[in-house]
Amino acid sequence: MGMLENKVAIITRAALGIGAGCAQRFVREGAAVVISDLRIKPGEELAASIRAAGGRAVFHSADVSSEDAIMALVGRAVGEFGRLDIMFNNEAAFDPTGPLESIDAQDWDRCFAVGLRSVFLAIKHCVPHMRKAGGGTILNNASVAAIRAEPNSPAYSAVKAAMVNLTASAAIQLAKDRIRVNCISPGVINTPTVWSRLPGGEAQAELLFANAQPIPRIGRPSDVAGIAAFLCSDDAEWITGINMVVDGGATAGHYERPRQR
Questions:
Q1: What percent of the chain has pLDDT over 90?
Q2: Fewer beta carbons under 10 A from the terminal one: N or C of the chain?
């Protein structure tokens, strides 16, 4: 019997990378999963592959910055599987980057809409269904950028820092309803977001970021998926309001990255 047996989960930005790894792990642990993403082809392919292997999964395309889209996404999960136990807010916008004085205000607002407004909306609309189910878990995917800001990504860093605080506030407010709210802050994870801009792709990312943290390898989606499954399981019923850092030790203390020879 898996850690998430008979639970129903929504995972956003789940077509590829961390979200896809978590969707696959959640299904192996017994959950039914709604895979949400705007990347339709890989999202539909992932859901189909899970079903072909005997798991329960559907794909639902949603712009998570839209309240109507979030309502439809939550409604799809409840309509398809009868309840909602887990909401994993994995969405993020990585642009704009660069100096603050060169950033367009609309791009700044879009980063906050996708990365933070979406979390607020998801909490707002999943809580009534979780109350009806007798409790639930909300998990938000932040970043080590919430702890150690990225100088070239001020909007992203600000969004992730705010997410950690929103997580704690929601956890306090919703504890009486047996709804737990936690956060994960991954370090560098080898996903298409990281390696798609590198000429050597995934293999080059493995080499380039092997020494970016004390544990001498780049992170993998499975590193996040295992922690996510645990935090969403009943084994973690006494854990709420935390930010779990999953970064190979990168933020544990002073760490001087070895120079490439």
A1: 80
A2: C
